[in-house]
């Protein structure tokens, strides 16, 4: 069970990136990680504040959101995370926030256009909007999966709600959440005083290609 | 007198959430808590900076704002808090800030429309505007109580002044103040570049119902 | 010389409020204090970063800006501070920043209208704009003094430049600088989505009267 | 090799100014320094987060970006930094960020007009836009050098990408990056509610002249 212990620590620590970059307030955002090779995930407990998130307080559920291990109820967004893991086997981490600039695009139901090299690098094109969906069944999860499946983007703006991001692991999903809010904000600013200049599609493609394959160590 | 001692500590600590989320500057905001079962409240002293707020420096007054215990004069907003406790027996905590986005809506006298699931969850509909009222008598308290009584919202935007929030205890009122500024900001952003999409009333109702009854531990 | 030693410490510490509230970047802002009963002032050294401001590094000048005591050259804004002390005997502290929202109003040459109770409380009416003035002689100081003399405001927005605030001591001037940026921001937000509602002049007067005479300990 | 050891420490520490002033997120920005008298530069490693930047992890390359010393691959922006050092012998430091307000101007391809004394002081006029350029060859470096060569500005806004700044050393380039974002933001705010008042050219010239020659210790 040492993979789970490691992920409890990783997931607890990654929540600090959400507060550091001011993507969340109070308890309103969560990170999860798939347990590799098992039908399990590690996720934030519901309604527990970020200061009090320890590895021990993380919750382990199966991929239908049923509690497997932990002293707390899992995040109220667990069903959406679980749906993503069931339907996107390449995804190892999911993040949900209500980060303000991304959520403002989501409130208008407008995708974020690809007008920055950073968007091309990380998201490979515009960042799409998912449907309005109520919490309580698989509606949110299905909206995330259907929207992401039709895009290169690792981020989806769920309408009137907020963003979900995915990644090969929890750290990659958190990175996508951080970069999403950053570009949502910069493109917001750009639009406030006029129109950003589009980037030609072939440039978007070559930026995306390079960043996915060359960047980093 | 141990309930009072506990509340002195709680109220002192909760002020840190106001500075953490940048809802207040200098000394311009305050938290109070009703002492359960007694006609007393614990509130911030007037004009004391947040760094210097210790449990000992908190002030105890009766529910007409008269000093009962403490070395400092109570907050200049004490009369408003006291009025709320006298007229809303279900309220155990009151918070007042001048958080910038909420106050901008208040300056225009415009309610914040319910265009985010987070607003439906926490506030149950649009966040209403209260009347312009001068400090010095019961005008502010009466404006708060009359406005909140006509709404499911725990927050009211006092015109040209700033928000007041209430809760079953001081922590819940602080949570409402934090979430209010967050949604005031996101909806502000959404309006800057167009129009947010409304959420249908029956969805607002079901989100509010669920969040009030299911969320958290 | 113990009054000077005290003021060195006070002035060094007050600069931390400028960074805490993000009113300044790098070395671009300064606090000074008049030495009571002497024709001296204590001011920030020029081009020294806020992390390195110790009481020992503060500079003492006469009220024409000539170095009296200290190992560093005084702030490049010393002449403006000195002019204010020479011409406004009731002023004991002066603060200069380029805080972004206040400076944006200054860049347009527009006063901040009195549409918040906090503006009425602290500034007694609209916050006025001073003339464009070059550094190097008494132009800035004269612009500050002439503008403040025609107003109840403790803050002036120097055109295309940034704000100066004054107070009975350095702490009061810093408080005014903090509140100025807060209201400059909130009124900016209010204007972005429409028009704030004006506050009637007799209400402004009674708010100002009360705050100046009753608030605090 | 002690100059290199010093610069490793300096460059590592200067990255903290990028996070302090929120000019960068995750790993998306970098500082470099020329090694005086040698055809070498010290630069951030690629894809390493700011918390983990130690002097030892800095990378030394030649002025064509080839690794000379270090355990990590150099920043993916190394080619651009190296090009600047090869073609601008007076430059001792280069900084690249995607700071949000500056990048918003870059996304629209609009220079920042010189409407603040701080812009005249530090940049000597409007802050120019460089061409759209793909990463992978000398296009970015050439765009920076050509744009800066036609201006007094130490900052260039690379179109759809973000700013680069230069200075006589790494600290001066970081200072320019910090001031750039500050003025990009303030002028953004000023434009949101109207038009800033221009500063006459002869005033710009005299402000620039004075600041470059008189300011600081």
Automatic annotation (TrEMBL), chains A, B, C, D:
- Kindly list the residue ranges recorded as spanning the membrane: none
What SMART domains is this protein classified in? Aldolase_II
Asked if Zinc is a keyword of the record, the answer is yes
One Gene Ontology BP term is: pentose catabolic process
As cofactor, the record names:
Zn(2+)
One GO cellular component term noted in the UniProt record for this chain: cytosol
Q: Is Zinc included in the keywords of this UniProt record? A: yes
EC top class named in words: isomerase
Any idea which GO molecular function terms this record carries? aldehyde-lyase activity; L-ribulose-phosphate 4-epimerase activity; metal ion binding
EC identifiers of the protein: 5.1.3.4
List keywords of the entry alphabetically: Metal-binding, Zinc
Q: Name one Pfam family in it.
A: Aldolase_II
Say which domain of life the source belongs to. Bacteria
Domain Class II aldolase/adducin N-terminal, by residue range, is 9-188
> What Gene3D superfamilies would the database entry show?
Class II aldolase/adducin N-terminal domain
Q: Which reaction does it catalyse?
A: L-ribulose 5-phosphate = D-xylulose 5-phosphate
Family in the record: Belongs to the aldolase class II family. AraD/FucA subfamily.
Protein name per its UniProtKB record: L-ribulose-5-phosphate 4-epimerase
Q: List the lineage, top down.
A: Bacteria, Bacillati, Actinomycetota, Actinomycetes, Pseudonocardiales
């Amino acid at each position: 069970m040492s993979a789970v212990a490691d992920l409890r620590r990783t997931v607890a620590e990654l929540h600090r990136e959400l507060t550091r970059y001011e993507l969340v307030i109070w308890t309103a955002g969560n990170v999860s990680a798939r347990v590799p090779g098992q039908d399990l995930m590690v996720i934030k407990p519901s309604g527990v504040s970020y200061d009090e998130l320890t590895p021990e307080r993380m919750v382990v559920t199966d991929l239908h959101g049923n509690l497997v291990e932990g002293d707390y109820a899992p995040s109220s967004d667990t069903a959406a995370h679980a749906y993503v893991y069931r339907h996107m086997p390449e995804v190892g981490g999911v993040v949900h926030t209500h980060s303000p600039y991304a959520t403002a695009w989501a409130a208008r139901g407008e995708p974020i256009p690809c007008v920055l090299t950073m968007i091309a690098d990380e998201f490979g094109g515009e960042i799409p909007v998912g449907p309005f969906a109520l919490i309580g069944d698989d509606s949110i999860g299905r909206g995330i999966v259907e929207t992401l499946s039709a895009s290169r983007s690792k981020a989806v703006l769920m309408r009137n709600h907020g963003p979900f991001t995915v990644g090969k692991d929890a750290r990659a999903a958190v990175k996508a959440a951080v970069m999403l809010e950053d570009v949502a904000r910069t493109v917001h600013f750009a639009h406030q005083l006029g129109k950003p200049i589009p980037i030609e599609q072939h440039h978007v493609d070559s930026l995306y290609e390079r960043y996915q394959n060359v960047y980093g160590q």
